[in-house]
Structure formats: structure tokens, C-alpha cells
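Entry 14. Structure prediction run on the chain below.
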Amino acid sequence: MHIVKLYKVDIGVNEDYPIVSSQSIFAALLNAMPNLAEKLILDDRFAVSSMFPFSGNKIYLPIVNAKILMKDKNDELNKKIKSKKLLVVDAFKEGLNEKYLDDKPEDVFLIKNAHNSVPRTTKMAGETKLFFSYRIKSTKKSGLWFSYSPQFKSIIEKALLEMKYFGFGRDKTTSSQPFEDFEFHEIEDDGDFFINLALYSPTKDELKQFLEKSKEDEFFGPNYVLVQYAGWTEVSDGHFTVNMEKPAKYYFKEGSIFPSLGKTSYGRRGPYAELEGNFKHKIYWNGITPIYKFKRG
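Output returned:
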């Protein structure tokens, strides 16, 4: 597994959870390299994951059903494990035991800020409501990482240099620097199962093979979560630019477990059929994911 570590991060996020969605990273990388955007979108080998925390040498991975990794199953451990959403890589290699239950990313902080909002229609202060924004911040030795397709390393590096100085997402119009530095690393992974590291939309053939394997092996089981994702996009017809809500699609949540089919990335991407013909260019959804492979404990 090939990853990039971003050190000393200061990034705005949309949810009360210390990750940045693969949809946001995918869009940010394309925006940083506009001359290559169309070529990358049409290349199914190009895959990037969501961002997850790391602390020093500890890399944290997503998981939707941590109980499946437990070596010693008992009721007490079952209660403690239910809330685990992130696990250090070693737990996948050694099997999950009690020493990993209290392990969590150090020096990676989720900051919650409250704001007053005034309805745009009436602008009456008496109708203000609270809304919350979130930021992920870290120290110099910690931050966020994401996985990528190794054949695109040079493109990723150039895009990150652009993003480092000009920001991305909601921070692009501010002077905020999203991270201080970045490094490329390779993490050893191997096994007959994998977790998806991005929001994942399988191909018909992948689904067919998963279903066939699930009949042979109960380990596959209900170890996945479906989530609905919509989001917004900025589109232009050449004269006007508007913000438009993208049609909602269902994806497998990061950290779902699937049997390996011998590939390094899975999934598909394509244009939103609902938006076809409305604009000069196509608006794409992305469900291709890098993976982390592991062996059954």
C-alpha cells in the first residue's frame, strides 16, 4: 500500500469524525492539476483514498466491524469494541486484542466551533440558529495520510505542492495552509481479504464475485456499511457559475471488508446521468478505491 503523510495539518471538514472524504481529496487533486483533470478522470487506474490519522509511526485504518479481527472473543471485549472506528495497522497484522482497544491517534485533534446563522430570506436576528464547523489540526509529528495508485506518484506530488501553498476545498479562498510538509511511504500489506480506503461503488462483476465467495465463506458476512453521499459542485455554462447539489449515490463506507479478487484497486466512476446535457462538461461521481489487504486472524 502506497501512502502520503501530511504533517501538521489544519483542514476544515464537514463531519464530526477525524477523516477527509475521498470525494474531497479526488476533487482537490484534479483542481490542482486542471490540465490533467480529464485524462485522470477517464483513467480507471487513478485511485485515491480518504484521509485518516497517523501519529508518529502509527498508521490508523478505518474499520466498520472491528469484532471480526478479534482473536480472543468474549462479552467484555465485544462491548468495548463496538465503538471502534479506527485501528492501528498492527491490529490487522497481529489480530485485535485488548492492548489495541484504548489505542487512538495522539496529537490529532478535531476542533468543533459554534456559529450563529441568520436565515437569508428574512435576515432577522431573532431567528438565528447555531451551526457547527469542524477542523482537524495536528502537531508536527502527526497528521493525516491517504493512499494512492503508485504509477501516479509524480502527479500526486505536483498537486500536493500546489495544495500546500494555495489550500483546497473550503480553505482555498483563505490564507490557511492545510499542511506543513508531506512524505511518501510504502506500507506492507498482504492477504485474502481487504478493506476499502475510499467510498466504494463496485462493478457488476466485482459484486457477482463477492456474492459467490460469500456463499463459500461466512467470514465475508455483514462486514460492510452502505452510506449515502451527495455533496455540491460548482458548474458554469460559460456565462454564469452556480453551486449545484449533486444527486445522491450509495457507496460502501471506508473500512468495509471484502474478499480479495487479486486487484490493487476496485470500483468504478462515471458521469451523473441526471446532469447530462445541462452543461458544457460532464460532472463525475467517483467510486474507485485503493485497498489495504490483510489475512484472517
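The mean pLDDT is 82.
Filed with the rest of this week's runs.
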